[in-house]
Design goal:
single chain; about 475 residues; alpha/beta; Aspartate Aminotransferase, domain 1; Aspartate Aminotransferase, domain 2; 8-stranded mixed beta sheet; 4-stranded antiparallel beta sheet; 15 helices; about 35% helix; Aminotransferase_I/II_large; Tyrosine_aminoTrfase; tyrosine catabolism; transferase; NHTrfase_class1_PyrdxlP-BS
Length: about 475
């Protein structure tokens, strides 16, 4: 390029209409006279040289070597399940096929397909070609209305404006925590509880306080312990019902007691209800929002579990704003947070109304019947195994088993126990240390029935091989 061209520049209009074709000759020299401190002329034009740099030129410091590091948020993000499982030595017994009772995905073994009506709804949405573009960040209005209609009840009425559609229930939980909490705040989380709560909170600079669940009371909350953890920086109480990992279902009376604690301390509730309505016959599981008169609640749910399509990534937040405690600010905050990404899959949104309205009750009943049957098989088989203390669930897809480690001196802890169970019997159960609750392990009851029976038999064989009576037990036997 000639030196003559190098001394020319083009004027770029700040309203974005483009570049003028007529060169603007620099008559002021390179000292910046006639140009404000931002390189913009008083006539509203941005002054850009032909080679693309602003002038007057400013010498900038530069790095002398590459130094790219992960952010603090990335470094603070840790999934407790992955932290434990990735460190385990999982080498199955080559003589026995692997049975994984560890994965909370009901689709893994193919024995629990979703209903044909659900598939047809999705096919219809695809064929319509109406849902190939961007949707509003909070979801299509029609789809939000379908969700509000499905979950609205006289005790907890909803309309479309009370629904935020999300990319799975996990994003719903993330948005709910993010809108309620600031760095330095704390949230109350069940123990044992879903590990994602801590993963999200800690990465955001939010402290996690674990409140105890009581296995001897079918995993009810230790309300006294929970209340003792509340302070002026407690910004959210997470209640998981039905429970992962426990499979427990809180009754009306217990939910009312939880609400009294939240009301007394003016703490809003994040209700993780992804397993809503997945309760065994004879149990009743009202939504906690339907029982609340003054506590505001963000209820998180989705299609993943009840409709058996976790990969479709369709979740939602239901905003139950008792006495307008949240007001417009929390709602606006959720909208702003939803705009960080473009939310839930539009195709599934397009199918949502049909999925909710046309899935037959028989499909739900069949799923629940299977889960209850498998839970009963597992509980019955393991209840008679010395050293094991299973807790019968009332819903969801899980069963927790206590370990009397005094009877298993070959193992250091539940992680060691479950690791060796894989090595010897090719059965993988998730050690409850992943849920910060040692000396238990979690079983997923979605496997085919014959596989459940086989797995329980192998667990029995494993425990019989390693069980050791206490010294006092031996003395009793000698007598």
């Amino acid at each position: 390029m000639s030196s003559r061209m190098e001394n020319k520049s083009y004027s770029v209009q700040m309203n974005g209409t483009g570049v003028h074709s007529k060169p603007a000759v620099n008559t002021k020299g390179l000292n910046g006279t006639g140009v404000n401190g931002k390189g913009v002329h008083s006539n509203g034009f941005h002054h850009v040289s032909v080679n693309g740099s602003l002038y007057p030129a400013k010498v900038k410091s530069r790095r002398l070597r590459w130094d790219v590091k992960p952010s603090e948020m990335a470094n603070n993000t840790l999934n407790p399940i992955r932290a434990i499982v990735d460190g385990m030595k999982l080498t199955p017994n080559v003589d026995k096929p692997m049975i994984a009772l560890s994965i909370g995905d009901p689709t893994v073994f193919g024995n629990l397909p979703t209903d044909e009506a659900v598939l047809q709804a999705l096919k219809g949405a695809i064929d319509s070609q109406k849902y190939n573009g961007y949707a509003p960040s909070v979801g299509y209005l029609k789809s939000r209305q379908a969700v509000s209609n499905f979950y609205s009840c006289p005790e907890a009425p909803l309309d479309a404006e009370d629904v935020i559609l999300t990319s799975g229930c996990s994003q719903a939980i993330e948005l709910a925590i993010s809108v309620l909490c600031n760095p330095g705040d704390n949230i109350l989380v069940p123990c044992p509880g879903f590990s994602l709560y801590k993963t999200l909170a800690v990465s955001l600079g939010i402290k996690v306080k674990l409140y105890n669940l009581l296995p001897e009371k079918s995993w009810e909350i230790d309300l006294q312990h929970m209340e003792s953890l509340i302070d002026e920086r407690t910004s959210c109480l997470i209640v998981t019902n039905p429970s992962n990992p426990c499979g427990s279902v809180f009754n009306r009376e217990h939910l009312q007691k939880i609400l009294k604690v939240a009301s007394r301390h003016c703490v809003p509730i994040l209700a993780d209800e992804i397993y809503s309505d997945m309760v065994f016959p004879g149990c009743h599981c009202p939504s906690i929002a339907s029982l609340s008169s003054d506590v505001p609640i963000l209820s998180c749910g989705g299609l993943a579990k009840r409709w058996l399509v976790p990969g479709w990534r369709m979740g939602w937040i239901l905003i139950h704003d008792r006495n307008e405690v949240f007001g417009s600010e929390i709602r606006q905050g959720l909208v702003k947070l939803s705009q960080r990404i473009l939310g839930a899959c539009t195709i599934v949104q397009g199918a949502l109304e049909s999925i909710l309205n046309n899935t037959p009750q028989s499909f739900y009943n069949k799923t629940i019947s299977f889960l209850k049957s498998n839970s009963e098989i597992c509980f019955s088989e393991l209840s008679t195994v010395p050293g094991l203390n299973p807790v019968m669930p009332s819903g969801a897809m899980y069963l927790m088993v206590g370990l009397d480690m005094d009877h298993f001196p070959d193992f250091k802890n539940d992680v060691d126990f479950t690791e060796r169970l894989v090595t010897e019997q090719s059965v993988f159960c998730l050690p409850a240390s992943a849920f910060e609750y040692p000396n238990f392990f979690r079983i997923v009851v979605t496997v085919p029935e014959e596989m459940m029976v086989e797995a329980c038999g192998r667990i029995r064989e494993f425990c019989q091989r390693h069980y050791r009576p206490r010294s006092c037990d031996s003395n009793d036997l000698d007598q």
